[in-house]
Amino acid sequence: KVLSHIDSILQSPRAPPSIFRPSKGPVQNYIKENGQGCGFEHLPLTIEMWADQLIALKDLHRSLRKLSLELLPWNTKHLQDNRESIRVEDLQLIVDAILEELEHKEKNSQTQSLQTLSAIVSHFQKLFDVNSLNGVYPRMNEVYTKLGEMTNAMRNLHELLELDSSAPPTVVVDTVGKLCDIINKNVTEQVQQLLGTQDIHSIINKLEEHESFFPPFQALIQDLLCLLEISNMDDILPAVQNLK
């Protein structure tokens, strides 16, 4: 009866085809009542292999539970079953839940990435007054070129003003302003020395006197040049002396 029961199980369509192996020798075979070889000599080894696989199945289930707790700490529905026997279906449920969550995360990540990129492009358009998407790349190139020019200019100013390369632009501007003040002060002092006065009102008077004197003097010189038929002002005095 046991052999008949085993035989019916092994001949089931669900049984692996490699379980039943017909015997090749009359000595090694178990004999059924009808005298035919049963072919179950290798079955103990197969059962031992199955037992090892069932133990490994428990270890795999334990590992998948740990992985699921790491990836899906909020989803413990399929982790509450502490049955002694583990089925392949139990493992498949855990794997399916992990795959579903990963696909959901990947989809959300792609959607968020597209939204982020769209927001970046819109912000660039607002900052640099770009009306269409076609104008984004040209304006990017323009901004890059201008940035390079300003960077080179700031680097040259740092070197000319003997400033540290880490000095901010405000320091550069302040230094240039101080230099301009010094230059303007020197120019004012030179003008004061040239005109022989230290008072700004006196400078204004001197300029007014020059403005009132110079035009008549220039007209007189032009008349003398015409009368004496000469073209150089240095020749006026020798020409007048010759007239004497």
Automatic annotation (TrEMBL):
Q: Does the keyword Coiled coil apply?
A: yes
UniProt KW Coiled coil keyword:
yes
Q: What is its main location?
A: cytoplasm
Q: Where in the cell is it found?
A: Cytoplasm, Cytoskeleton, Microtubule organizing center, Centrosome
A Gene Ontology biological process in which this protein takes part is: cilium assembly
Q: Which UniProt keywords apply?
A: Coiled coil, Cytoplasm, Cytoskeleton, TPR repeat
- Example GO molecular function: gamma-tubulin binding
Q: Name one GO cellular component term.
A: centrosome
- Name the SUPFAM superfamilies on file: ARM repeat (SSF48371)
Query: InterPro entries attached here?
Result: ARM-type_fold, CEP70
Question: What's this protein's function?
Answer: Plays a role in the organization of both preexisting and nascent microtubules in interphase cells. During mitosis, required for the organization and orientation of the mitotic spindle.
* Subunit composition and interactions: Directly interacts with tubulin-gamma; this interaction determines centrosomal localization.
The name on file for this protein is: Centrosomal protein of 70 kDa
Q: Which organism is it from?
A: Dicaeum eximium
Quick one: which gene encodes this? Cep70_0
